[in-house]
Amino acid sequence: MVDALSFLKTKYILHRDVKPSNILINQNPIIFKLCDFGICGRLINSVAGTMMKGTGIYLAPERIDKERSPQGYGIQSDMWALGLSTYEIATNEHPFRGLDAIPILAKAETWVPQLPSSLSSELQDLVAW
Predict the structure, then answer these.
(1) What per-residue confidence (pLDDT) applies to 18?
(2) Contact 69, 61 (CB under 8 A)
(3) 2-10 and 75-91 helices, crossing angle to 10°
(4) What DSSP string runs through 59-103?
(5) Which end of the chain, N or C, is more open, meaning fewer C-beta atoms within 10 Å of its C-beta?
(6) How many angstroms separate the CA atoms of 55 and 13, rounded?
(7) Helix, strand, or coil here: 3?
(8) Using CA of residue 12, residue 16, residue 18, residue 24, what is the dihedral sign?
(9) In angstroms, what CA-CA distances link 116 with 87, 88, 119, 123?
(10) What contacts 88, CB < 8 A, 6 or more positions away?
(11) For the chain, what are the domain ranges?
(12) Does the domain spanning 2-128 belong to CATH 1.10.510.10?
C-alpha cells in the first residue's frame, strides 16, 4: 500500500479516502490493491487543498483542523489513514471509532498504539511506524 501511495504521489494524486474497505486483498499470491478513487485530488505543490473529503475516523488531524495546515494537506494525510487502516486490520478495532472530530484531534495527539503481543514483530513495527 505504501508503494501504491508513493506511485500516486509521482502522478500528483492524493487518494483522500484510504480505509480498510478501500483495500482489496488477493489471497494467492497475496497482493494488496487500493480502490475507490472517487474523491481523489490533484496535488499542486505537494498540497491537495483544504476540503474535508473522506471518511471521518480516517482523516488526519491536519484535515480536521485547518489551522494545523492552512496551506492544505498532502500525502501525509493518506499515510495517516493507511496507518490507521493497518492498525484496524491487524487488531480488528479502530482507535477512534465512535468519536467526533474534536475528540479525535485530542486523542490523536497523545495516542500510542497498543498492539497485541500475538502480532508478529514485523507487523508490530509496521503498525507503529
Answers:
(1) 95
(2) no
(3) 160
(4) --HHHH-GGG-TT---HHHHHHHHHHHHHHHHHS--TTTT--HHH
(5) C
(6) 18
(7) helix
(8) negative
(9) 11, 12, 6, 10
(10) 20, 94
(11) 2-128
(12) yes
Interatomic CA distance for residues 49 and 120, integer angstroms: 37
Picking from 129, 127, 113, 42, the residue whose alpha carbon sits closest to that of residue 53 is: 42
Residue 49: per-residue pLDDT: 62
Helix (H) or strand (E) holding 8: helix 2-10
C-beta neighbour count of 50 within 10 angstroms: 13
Cis-peptide, bond into residue 29, ω within 30° of zero: yes
Per-residue model confidence as pLDDT tens for the chain (129 residues): 889 999 998 998 989 999 999 999 998 898 999 999 998 888 776 555 666 678 878 888 877 776 766 666 788 889 989 988 988 888 888 887 777 767 777 777 777 777 888 888 888 777 766
Q: Which residues make Cβ contacts (< 8 Å) with residue 106, sequence separation at least 6? A: none
Identity of the amino acid at 83:
G
Output the pLDDT for position 36: 95
Residues with a catalytic annotation lie at 17
